Amino acid sequence: MDDTNTVLDPRSFLKTISAQDFLGFGLLEMAYVKTDKDESGKKRFTVYRADGQSLVSLNEYDLAVATILHNDLEPVSLH
User: Fold this and answer.
1) How far apart are the two ends of the chain, measured CA to CA in Å?
2) Residue 76 falls within a domain, yes or no?
3) Which of 3, 21, 31, 52 suits a disulfide with 17, CB 3.0-4.6 Å?
4) Does residue 52 belong to any structural domain of this protein?
5) Distance of CA 44 to CAs 17, 33, 56, Å?
6) Quick check: is 63 in a domain?
7) Averaging pLDDT over each range in 8-12, 14-18, 24-28, 31-35, which range is the top one?
8) Distance between CA atoms of 41 and 4, rounded to whole angstroms?
């Protein structure tokens, strides 16, 4: 009997993935916005990939979120 189609609950699944796989989790699906300042001290809203790589810095928060959505990513909130 082949059990490759067995569905695991989320906790069981997370126990089966490697550290490298975990690092890539959501990398191509999620992005977040963080407030930064440019060289002159002006407030900027920078879009980051799930792994923390900055993608773009914009003047408005709404534009940063719209950019995430336009690129078929899911905006996530950091707490």
Assistant:
1) 45
2) yes
3) 21
4) yes
5) 36, 10, 10
6) yes
7) 31-35
8) 54
Is residue 19 in a domain?
Answer: no
Task: Indicate the pLDDT class of residue 26, thresholds 50, 70 and 90.
Answer: low
Which of these, 35, 38, 21, 28, lies nearest to 68 by C-alpha position? 28
Full DSSP string of 44-59: EEEEEETTS-EEEEES
SS3 content of the chain, % helix, strand, coil (to 5): 30, 30, 45
| SS3 state at 72 | coil
Instruction: Give pTM, 2 decimals.
Output: 0.67
Angle in degrees, CA 21, 24, 30, rounded to 5: 145
User: Residue 3 has what pLDDT?
Assistant: 55
Q: Quick check: 33 and 52 in contact, CB under 8 A? A: no
The number of distinct structural domains making up the chain is 1
Residue 48 belongs to domain spanning:
28-79
